[in-house]
Amino acid sequence: MVAVSVKILIVDDDERDRIILRYVLEQIKGVEIVGEAVHGLEALMLCQEKEVDLVFLDINMPEMDGLETARKLKQLKNVPLFAFITINKDLAVDAFELEALDYIVKPIEQNRIELTIERARQHLGDQEIMEEMINTSVKERINFILDRYNNYGLYSDKLPVREKGKISLLNQNDIVFCESQGKKVYICTYNEGFLSNYTLNELEKRLNSINFFRAHQAYIVNLNYITEILNLGDSSYVLHLENCDKDIILSRSKAKLLRQRLGI
Fold this sequence. Notes:
Blueprint: E1 6-11, H1 15-26, E2 31-37, H2 40-49, E3 54-57, H3 66-73, E4 81-86, H4 92-97, E5 102-105, H5 110-152, E6 158-163, E7 166-171, E8 175-181, E9 184-189, E10 193-196, H6 200-206, E11 212-216, E12 219-222, E13 226-233, E14 236-241, E15 248-250, H7 252-262
Parallel strand pairs: 1-2, 1-3, 3-4, 4-5
Antiparallel strand pairs: 6-7, 8-9, 8-12, 9-10, 11-12, 13-14, 14-15
Helix pairs in contact: 2-3
């Protein structure tokens, strides 16, 4: 597994300390030093100009100390990780309240810096995994919406039915049920019926999946018109629909799904 590369910014007003830290970091694989700053303001500017994963911050700096710099870093659009390197042993609580990745007391040791780098890698890797999961979820949702849109066609709320030299545009809300009758599908609306050339599979994709349910291999029903679910025994069911004398068969495999859809 390839290690996550870590881009680092060094911030310290002491040149000697910067040289030491740079040397230690250069011994660690997968680390890229993208810049050095001598005070907090310069660090903020570099973080806005460059891609920075981790900032090593001294606390005792003139004008803007490390703690204040960290507060400003957290206000950036792309907030980097940051860890403090300091001679001060008494500010660790303040540092971790700012969600610092680490608090290292000088003089620094390579194994201590390596531990901090490894924490950064783990954090950055988790972020990449989360972003990938979010992007995948969003992409799947967009594809689902586009697929539904394409299946609905131009008339998203209408169902075009060809018969006898004309095309009737049926309001989906008026459709009570659809029944397979050989090579044709009978579409029963609140007021009348139509014999269409659709297949039930085509209608299942085209009709609004929120309101319509495939109750049986031969039936699609509008959930809004169901008035009763009758148990005939031996796991057999029929549906009674509003203003309709037709008994709709509910298959055994679909009964549980229907109960879930209706919350019963």
